[in-house]
Design brief:
Layout: H1 6-37, H2 42-77, H3 82-125
Helix pairs in contact: 1-2, 2-3
């Protein structure tokens, strides 16, 4: 792994994903709190809690990806076993991709929940 710094260059990108996911979690948490205090649809609250759990899993995968990429960069920089550094780097990228899959899942379900909220709101107005 002559280019030991390559895994480290991915870390800021994952950091931005963590920042945006944290903002999503805060917004979703506030939204759930508002739904609970207003005693609104329990089904919607449960679905949003599931969404919060999905975002939490996403964050865990991103944190693990950063740990793997930083470790592989350190192993490569200190010129330890380059194969191990490469494998850890690959593991970091795989963990990042799993986190991104969870974000895609969150996005699709978030739209579905919003549509259901709109339908419920429209039905209550009639």
């Amino acid at each position: 792994m002559n280019n030991w710094y390559l895994p480290i260059t991915i870390v800021p990108g994952i950091g931005l994903l963590i920042l945006s996911t944290s903002n999503l979690m805060i917004t979703l948490s506030n939204e759930i709190n508002n739904l609970i205090t207003k005693n609104l649809s329990e089904a919607i609250i449960k679905r949003k809690l599931t969404q919060l759990k999905t975002l939490n899993r996403t964050m865990v995968f991103f944190y693990l990806a950063i740990a793997c990429l930083a470790t592989s960069g350190l192993i490569g920089g200190l010129e330890f076993n380059h194969k191990i550094g490469s494998y850890i780097s690959i593991l970091g990228v795989i963990l990042m991709l799993i986190g991104l899959i969870f974000l895609v899942k969150y996005s699709y379900k978030a739209v579905s929940i919003r549509q259901d909220q709109f339908k419920n709101h429209s039905n209550h107005k009639k």
